[in-house]
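EI: anyone free to look at a 248-residue chain?
SC: sure, send it
EI:
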Amino acid sequence: MELKDKVALITGASSGIGAFTAKKLAKQGVRVGLAARRLDRLQALVSEIEAAGGEAIALVMDVTDPASGNEGGATLHKRYGHIDIAFNNAGLMPISDIARLKIDEWHQMVDVNVKGLFNTVAAVLPIMQSQRSGHIINTSSIAGRKTFPGLGVYCATKHAVAAFSDILRMEVAPQFNIRVTSLQPGAVESELFEHISDENYRAQMEQLKEKMTFLKADDIADSIVYVLQAPEHVDVAELFIMPTEQPW
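SC: here you go
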């Protein structure tokens, strides 16, 4: 895909992977819709992108609310007349053993990681179908391929994302020329660790940082540019990206 003048919707754009990807795409000439709940951060990112010569719009959007997702997609579509890229990046990763029954955290993960992704896909898919073009990138994880103690519900959500993404690709790629990619990173430095309320697991994750070099948000942003720039007849259906030192 030629990226200049394309339009992208990025969820979870206020920090981390979402923010770095937005800046990277803006440098390629993409007009970026920044979707998240924190307006102050979105506005600061819009200013940064515009100062660097790019173009962006802040979209206050709660992915767990279908109406909010539809409104965000409609606003971006109205502004530019098309949506070519959707990067479903919003996610939560609290860690705890299932037996601790942190049910509120379970529901938050399902609401954001699964239902939130469904809502955003539902907001952009009709637009891409009418265009007969587009690219949807869904953030799964190594936890969408493997399982780990403490990550029972998180793994379940990311396995769901991986399955949904592959079936979506099968259904829409041949008929509507819409490419779909399941992005599956290993350990990445991000705000996800801030969601861990279990002190033991949080300490374990911090200790991991001393044992290996985690991927940076910028590394993931580079991989997304690579996926998007593939020739039109190429769909990178899965991208499994790992720290070199991560053995599991």
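EI: The mean pLDDT is 95.
SC: 👍
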